């Protein structure tokens, strides 16, 4: 049910006959007067069906509920959408909240309208654990519907816009939740789809609901601008207009009014005061053609000098949402910057309405405008990523990450342009090229210079990805990627790798446990094994082995259960024998982890502790926490290092030094010479003469660690070194 909607559905009944047609119906017909005359009666039929279905329902404000869907249709009519969209808007809450069915709508208005209504309909919240998960799953369903028909999101945005306009009837808690969701998801989606007018209103209504006092203060300041500033604005406008006229350019020049939200964002994001933000004049120049845009640029630069490095050409390289304009910033006559946007009438329409501009759905055979094409491409990418997402909540978080206001434009070595969110890295670029390229990436060349994958990219750079078939995603990658496509692909691949690692480790652990009982997996009757798996709801043996590795089944417990099921218990076993140790080679991934309390490295004597859901956690045998863990001997796993163990392992050193200038540099140099990576340095104690530092470092094994300690002890400033 929509925010602002309260009553429950009652029996259908048509609106009373003989009464005058309500004003809101006439207003919708006026707004939709651009439709062919024969289509207008359909709107009144849809109103009659909707009014009958919602009969007896009211909004929290006390108005008849039908006024809400009619207002939503009015928003879409102002954007110039087709009759099917308007009918679907009028009926968009009927399937969810009234006895009216999808079939009823399809029978009267056709399958397309029924599909649109169904796409907007939210899922029943009773199916989910909480409101948050219900909203996330509803959003996922809406995106799937959007992929089939973009008009679904148009109706959803119009629905959200009217709910925001009438948010006052809601409770304080509901107002905050709805406003936050609007600012985090719906306003950015409107921006991503190029719908500037809808985006701006959603942002300001959300800002007013979330921070009413801040909004009121900023609005008051905007209204009470000094007369001097208004006069200055007029002088700048006159001068720009004269310059354009001298060039013989037909133009429309409008000053851009700042909204409370845009001012607040700039103050927050750039650390500026209100006066600094307001001390910027903004103008939009609208001309007839693309060549006129560049002529207009020359004309405004002739009137006021441009600021160096502040020119952007979004006509040659449009934004991801289809937005096109020339942007320049000029030195104003009063020391204030003048921001100027130059575009054609068509660009202006697309900038304000985005995918709603020149709505071409089923009219003529025209191809969709660029904003629609880009919107479709973006939604297809989202659909790809949602298939790999683990849950609705994870998918929604990924989408939030992907809704960045600005993009960077990058080139492949062959000259193809890719647009990515601001702050994207070389790894994001790799996944944008292809998921397989991202999964196998090892480094990148940016403008022919070799850089790490975490390097942030800037517009205009040419990026080439260096890949290796043996490479695989690392968990650390999730810390610096920005795009949802990269994040989802990495998580999906890591889950695959972890599952494979878990299956292998579980197999080794169960084999050891069965061997100690005089059996093995191969000796168990196949039919009995299949029956055991079926009874415990494991689709395959691999799933059971993974559960063993992750600690959800103890190896000995699993072995005993299997033996009992196979009726082999009490046979010629070797239950008194100690299990052979499982050898760790460092490639087990997330199934085997290293305890932070003692940080074991190859060469240390170790033991594994089985933890449910986490797999095996390795501890040194001299770990101070061992006494506590000995209380659960059934969870201990005999483990040792494989002779071929490889990789870098975390450990920590406590170093006592003389407190002199340059000491830290000497220590860092010694560690670098020993080929050890420094992860972190902390001062544990410090006074005038001495200091104690903790170095978190990476080493290959105990031999490597001994070499590191020797090198540090050779330094004159070092008084002592010990492992933590």
From TrEMBL:
Q: Give the Enzyme Commission number.
A: 3.1.7.2
Please list the residue ranges annotated as the TGS domain: 406-467
UniProt cross-references to InterPro entries, sorted A to Z: ACT-like_dom_sf, ACT_dom, Beta-grasp_dom_sf, HD/PDEase_dom, HD_domain, NT_sf, RelA/Spo_fam, RelA/SpoT_AH_RIS
Similarity remark: Belongs to the relA/spoT family.
Where is the region Disordered? 1-22
What this protein catalyses is: guanosine 3',5'-bis(diphosphate) + H2O = GDP + diphosphate + H(+)
Task: Give the top-rank taxon of the lineage listed in the UniProt record for this protein.
Answer: Bacteria
Q: What is this protein called?
A: guanosine-3',5'-bis(diphosphate) 3'-diphosphatase
Q: Which UniProt keywords apply?
A: Hydrolase, Kinase, Transferase
Q: Which GO terms describe its biological process?
A: guanosine tetraphosphate biosynthetic process; nucleobase-containing small molecule interconversion; response to starvation
Which one of the record's GO molecular function terms can you name?
A: GTP diphosphokinase activity
GO CC terms on record? Answer: plasma membrane
Residue ranges of domain HD in the record: 65-164
Task: Give the enzyme class.
Answer: hydrolase
This protein's pathway: Purine metabolism; ppGpp biosynthesis; ppGpp from GDP: step 1/1
Q: Where is the ACT domain positioned along the sequence?
A: 652-724
Q: Does the keyword Transcription apply?
A: no
